[in-house]
Automatic annotation (TrEMBL):
It holds the Pfam family HTH_3. This is XRE family transcriptional regulator. It comes from Deinococcus cavernae. GO terms for molecular function: DNA binding. SUPFAM superfamilies: lambda repressor-like DNA-binding domains.
Length: 70
């Protein structure tokens, strides 16, 4: 199963000096969704929010995802 790499997402957000609220406003992704990704409480990410985050941080979607079976 592919999941969001919450640690990477949090590192990118903090490295860019953003709060969850600020990131939510910039990416138009609900703050609770972003928090769930970071805390790994959302196991099956939808592509649209992950694509928005990848574009925002100028990284690939693969960089934000990890394969739990590896």
């Amino acid at each position: 199963m592919v999941t969001v790499n919450g640690a990477v997402l949090r590192e990118l957000r903090q490295a860019n000096g953003l709060t969850l609220v600020e990131l939510a406003k910039r990416t138009k992704i609900d703050r609770r969704t972003l928090s769930g990704y970071e805390k790994k409480t959302i196991a099956d990410p939808r592509c649209t929010p992950i694509h928005r985050l990848a574009r925002h941080y100028n990284v690939t979607m693969e960089h934000l995802l990890k394969d739990e079976e590896s």
